[in-house]
Amino acid sequence: MSYYFTIIGTRDNPLFEIDFGTHKLGGDGVARFRDEAKHMNQFIVHAALDMVEEAQWMGKDLYLRRVDTFQNNHVHCFLTGGNVKFMLLMNPDPTASSYASYRSPPPSRPSTARQSASMLAANPSSQATEDAVRQFMLEVYEAWLKCIMNPFYQVNNVVTSPIFRGRVATAAKKYL
């Protein structure tokens, strides 16, 4: 399973980006996105912002769960109090996504038989997946609060802190 995590500012500008793979069931933590997917991930996440705008007024929770799906990708969102969006794109099987061919409908399930039922990728809409993503988002939110409390940080500026990047990677390793 591969992940693309980004933080979107109040002006819909990216403040932070990282991609990583799963550490569960012997994963090495390296994202396995195809070359064209690395650029498409940004488009998919930004296209999901419209769904976030609609979903944020539907309830009172900051974690909006899965807000959008495109082909084999699932986008989850967490809102902060300052309307900064944490967006996580999850792709259960990056080799099954072909962005070059839109003619055929996407498969309803990943096309690999070797995936275990206990793996998060086996059912991206399961409660276990939602709980893991929620815990990941909450831990990143805690790191985000510490980052923006820095008196030298200005709102909507790109986050370049290696400490913050490390904390996001540690949360990913722990939950995803």
TrEMBL record:
Q: What is the organism of origin for this protein? A: Acrodontium crateriforme
Q: Would you tell me the protein name for this molecule?
A: Trafficking protein particle complex subunit 2
Q: Which SUPFAM superfamilies is this protein grouped with?
A: SNARE-like
Annotated signal sequence range: none
Domain of life according to the entry: Eukaryota
UniProt cross-references to CDD domains, sorted A to Z: TRAPPC2_sedlin (cd14825)
Q: Enumerate the Gene Ontology biological process terms.
A: endoplasmic reticulum to Golgi vesicle-mediated transport
Q: What's in the GO CC field?
A: cytoplasm
Annotated spans, Disordered: 99-125
